[in-house]
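SEQUENCE-TO-STRUCTURE ENTRY
===========================
Question of interest: how does this chain fold, as expressed in backbone structure tokens?
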Amino acid sequence: MHFDNRKDAGVRLAKALARYDNEDAIIYALPRGGVVLGAEVARQLELPLELVIPRKIGHPENPEYAVCAVTEEGDLVCNEEEASRLDPIWLKGAVKREQEETKRRRKAYVGRKRLPATGKLAVIVDDGIATGLTMRAAIRSLRKELPIEIVIAAPIAPHEVVEYLRHEADDVVVLDDSEPFLGAIGAYYTDFPQVTDAEVTKLLSSFS
């Protein structure tokens, strides 16, 4: 499956999530790219849009390859085999930097009271899933707020990651988990530019 851009992916994802349009639900998007899809899903299903902000910790020799992810609260989710080979001092520093970035983003993006997941159906949206670590961190973050259910939604993810995430979420909605996985989320999009802080802020403001 191929997508023109994030908006196109969001429209298609909204159709796959249509069964949730009458639920007491909140769309939680992962910034930055996931917010473009999350906004589209929230508009289509007439649901509120909120953020969940985990941060990937990339391997020191290959930053695009996630070895861990950290929640806003500082909880760490790791590929234990990969993490065991890392310098613990480096890892501690990387965790601190990325948690500080979650705080910066929360402050930069949100000029309103945050919508808690307590008692709600929480739908976590991103523009794609690779290792699943950031999504697992997002789940861990929202579980603390005691939602009724957690649903994961993304256009693309590796099949084995989807199967793993089914054990951590109540439902997983992925449009394409066919093999072989192309290795990079951007390979599934014709247009996949970096999303800016300003774009995220503008999208969020349209739901205020």
In short: Residues 56-107 form a domain with the Ybab; Chain: A; fold (CATH 3.30.1310.20).
